[in-house]
Amino acid sequence: MSTSDQQQKSKKHRFDFRKKTSDELADEWAEKSVELPRMPFFYINIYQFCMPIFVLVVINFSIYYLYDLLSVQIIWQIIFLPLIFIIDYLMYMWSMTKFCKILHWYYNKRSPAKTGVYSRKFTKHNVADLSVHYYHLRGFMYKWPVFISKKSIFPWMVNFVLRDMAANKIDKDAIYGDAYVSLEFTNLHQGAVIMDGVTLSSHVNDSIFGNLTIEEVTVEKNGVMQTNSIMAPGGTISEGTAIGPKSYVPKSWRIERDDSKFIYGAPAKKFRKASFIELLPDSYKKQWLEKQKNIQ
Asked: So where are the chain's domains?
């Protein structure tokens, strides 16, 4: 065999990548396991649920003490009952956020929340990296307050919960639809709009046993993420830019504004040359042009 043939064979062998089958992956991961301690998560649930109840007990005891002190008639107590229920409902969410903020401060003291790439190697009973362990605890703690605020009669509470409890920078004018919000490292500027079905993720796992990547996701002033679009960690929507529905912003991908261009796709293209009309199917394009002609 000649030298050139040997070099070609060596080069082919070097770059001969092959996707592994599910059976091969199962054999490779057979000896691996994911074990996390259960009790810390159980304690978080008890803490989140019970601590706000003590606040409600104090509030309602005070109210009924005033009723007794002022000799309020039963008919007025019944009339005020719906208002008291709404106050209890709001105070439960508010106090839960504050108690979780205290717990968040404690976790941050043990291991500060920060961006980066972390190993997800597992020891016998936990993850090896302490930062990942407290990341799991913080993520678990966020989920219940965010869920009940999204499903409550006070939808504006979602921004309050994410801004007050976690490491997020969310402007008061930012708008969330019914979206899957990033629990940490979300940076939404003034006028940012997150429409229904959008997924913002400041973290991603490379695989079941791969690294954990945590990076900030950013929507700058008046940026818009339209329905069912996705942003991966490190993604940025620049000022005044909107991306189309069902688009994907990959890791560390910045979308720049380009006047009169419709930015969309998977991945979302930075400079899409097609106009909005050119993207329409022929049947809709004809209707659109006729409608514009009638308007003129």
From this structure: 112-295
Q: How far apart are alpha carbons 213 and 167 in whole angstroms?
A: 16
As a whole number of angstroms, the distance between CA 114 and CA 168 comes to 12
Q: How far apart are the first and last CA of the chain?
A: 77
Is 113 in a helix, a strand, or coil? Answer: coil
Q: State the architecture of 112-295 in CATH terms.
A: 3 Solenoid (2.160)
63, 110, 115, 113: which is closest to 87 by C-alpha? Answer: 63
What average pLDDT does the chain have? 80
Strand 116-118 and strand 212-214: the pairing is: antiparallel
Q: pLDDT-derived band of residue 53, with 50, 70 and 90 as boundaries?
A: very high
Can you tell me the distance from the alpha carbon of 151 to that of 156, in angstroms, rounded to the nearest whole number? Answer: 11
| Cα separation, 84 vs 59, whole angstroms | 10
Contact at 8 Å (CB) between 6 and 14? no
**Structure confidence by residue, pLDDT tens digits, 20-49:** 666 666 666 666 666 677 888 899 989 998
Beta-ladder partners of 42:
none
Lowest mean pLDDT among 7-16, 138-147, 237-246: 7-16
Can you tell me which residue has the tokens 């009169």? Answer: 260
Q: Is the pTM of this model over 0.85?
A: no
Q: What's the pLDDT band for 58 if we cut at 50, 70, 90?
A: very high
Place of tokens 């104090």: 58
Instruction: Tell me the CB-side half-sphere exposure of residue 9, using CA atoms within 13 A.
Output: 6
Q: Which residue has the tokens 């009638």?
A: 294
Q: Where are the alpha helices (DSSP H) in 111-181?
A: 130-150, 157-165
